[in-house]
């Protein structure tokens, strides 16, 4: 892509020479590198998917975009402004089913979030909450408590709460990873439809290559920790399961991950010998 083409694109997120790390323990002054020299951009309105092996730094990177982890070096820009803290312009949906307040109904969970962040009247909050519960197809469960819901319904309710805040970025960390295959596939289909209707920018972490190809407009492959950006793949034209484009991109992404894992194992063996 030429410089002039890049300048014409509306990037909502830009990472520039980003380094992230964690302390080895709460009392340890030594830090372990997690992400090294990451450079990438996310277009407004796309579904940007991050894949990589377990522990490679995907969730850490997502938290940094959310403003929960400060870079050691470099920066993350949101609308050209450095990210320094969390904000209502970024909403999270996690893998954990227990994201909702157990003592509030599904409707009250969303109403509470709206009253706190949007400072709107209770009636406005109720109306908005009901509309988003309709969007994710759990309006019938509005007056139920989280313990009365299945895993899939809990994730739909958590998604409704996040979308009701009308964030600029929806950050999703393995949101369907703990669901059975049928429910997971159904929610993938629904997420695509919700994205088309809302236009929200989504950044999603997953271990599933098929999920990445099916959902993503771009897929970023991360190497093992400390993570480097191995490749960013355009997947906008490969969303049909079983199509040649879908199969070819799935194979390509798998080869990128396998190559990286093999390389990491070789380096570990060399280190052990030394």
Automatic annotation (TrEMBL):
The keyword Nucleotide-binding applies. It comes from the Bacteria. Keywords: ATP-binding, Lipoprotein, Nucleotide-binding, Transport. Residues 13-249 form the ABC transporter domain. One of its GO terms (molecular function) is ATP binding. Coiled coil: none annotated. This is Sulfonate ABC transporter ATP-binding lipoprotein.
